[in-house]
Amino acid sequence: MPTSDGAGVSLTRLIGTPELDMLDPFLLLDSIESDDPDDYIAGFPAHPHRGFETVTYILAGKMRHKDSTGREGVIEAGGVQWMTAGSGIIHSEMPEQEDGLLYGFQLWVNLPAKLKMSAPEYREFAAEHIAVETRDGGVTIRVVTGETSLGTRGPVDNVVTEPLFVDVELPAGSRFTEPVPESHGAFLHIIEGNVAVQGSNDDTQVDEGALAVLEGGDRVTLVAGAEGARLLLVAGRRLEEPVARYGPFVMNTQAELMQAAQDYQSGRFVAP
Ligand code: FE2
Fold this sequence. Notes:
The protein is mainly β and 272 residues long. The protein has 2 domains: 2-128 and 254-265, Jelly Rolls (Sandwich); 131-237, Jelly Rolls (Sandwich). 6% of the residues lie in helices and 52% in strands. It has 2 helices and 21 strands. It has helices spanning 37-40, 254-265, and strands at 2-5, 9-15, 26-34, 44-49, 52-60, 62-67, 72-76, 80-84, 89-95, 102-110, 121-125, 131-135, 139-145, 164-170, 175-179, 184-197, 204-206, 211-214, 219-237, 244-246, 249-251. The strands form 4 sheets. Strands 12, 13, 14, 15, 16, 17, 18 and 19 form an 8-stranded antiparallel beta sheet that branches. Strands 1-2-3-10-5-8-11 form a 7-stranded antiparallel beta sheet. A 4-stranded antiparallel beta sheet has the order 4-9-6-7, with no helix packed on it. Strand 6 and strand 7 (72-76) form a beta hairpin. The structure holds fe (ii) ion. Fe (ii) ion is lined by residues 44, 47, 49, 54, 91, 93.
């Protein structure tokens, strides 16, 4: 769904839409892809978050973040920032470029009730710290978090929802298979090309730009189309807790949401 957020950034919303409200534990997935500065230059000036984690993964371009705990940095192509907002953080996310292509994703991962008010935390890894696995047939897997069946482990660890977040490149006609626990909500997003997802009866073709929800099994098997494919495969343990959400706050109850808004308005979020 095309949408706009922040101070006027043009986005494609893939999760968090009327059609796919959430995919437990994932609350939102946005994609920004544009070489027109008017689409991204306004960025995301200071705004709060409470109760979940935001994951920024950049394919092209640069984003600068700055937050109320005093941290600041630039996420560059191939890098990831895994931010645990916990009890509350105020940050800005602004493009560190005035022209050229900006292409990246933001994923919101929910936190269980017992960790919603935990201390905020940032983890950031540049491209060279993302684990890379290569398989037969020229398949390349960049592992941001989780562990593949061949034992490649991503740098982001100890996330409560035990996520798998991999960026997979498949040459034309190549095959990729990987276990995905049945306890996990899981999806694919096709960055380039297309794949056939093998099902127990028939295959499902998933095209460039599409998001596919994976369910009903403990393994995913993909075969790339004639142009090859690049995709994100993401899975996380379902929390199966009530979700109360309003903008940048995601809690379990309406009362907790009201409290979040009050705490923010009265300046009780983490101060520098
Ligand atoms: Fe944010």
